Amino acid sequence: MSYGNQPGDTGGYGAQPPGGGYGPPPGDGGYPPPGGGYGPPPGDGGYPPPGGYPPPGGYGMPPAPPNNHLVMAIVTTVLCCLPLGIVSIVYATQVNSKWAMGDFQGAMAASESAKKWWIASLITAAVLFVLYIVLVVVLGVFSASVSSSSY
Question: How far apart are CA 113 and CA 120, in angstroms?
């Protein structure tokens, strides 16, 4: 029996494909590839890799934790607005502990919150200082006008 087109052949399957037929390629033997088999590609299973997700920047040497803004939180607490500075200190102290526990996104969020609160404390102090200066000027002008009109 032949696979090629023969004279007088009205049906058949046509010519045999190159490479000698159907089946696994030569040298394959039909066995799974070395190192694991036919599963999904590594990292594509939809689950976190063993040991959790790596820190930002990938595997290898972990990057340094984000800035905790503790110095500015303390400075703005002492010199600016006490309540907002205390909130900033609370967030600033959470950054390194969250980073050490592996909560990288939580550490970055705490760092951003600490920064936001010390900036709010600084802005509040600046606004209050400007309002104080305006009040002193207005009272000075008012006092001068009252004392000059009484004589």
Answer: 10
* Alpha helix ranges (H) inside the chain: 70-79, 82-101, 104-149
Spell out the residues 6+ positions from residue 35 whose beta carbon is closer than 8 angstroms to its own. none
Cβ–Cβ < 8 Å for 55, 63:
yes
Distance of CA 92 to the CA centre of its chain: 17
Q: Where are the domains of the chain?
A: 70-149
Q: Which tens digit of pLDDT belongs to each residue from 48-103?
A: 655 566 666 656 667 888 999 999 999 999 999 999 999 999 999 999 999 999 99
pTM above 0.85, yes or no: no
**What is the C-alpha to C-alpha distance for residues 51 and 42, in angstroms, rounded to an integer?**
15
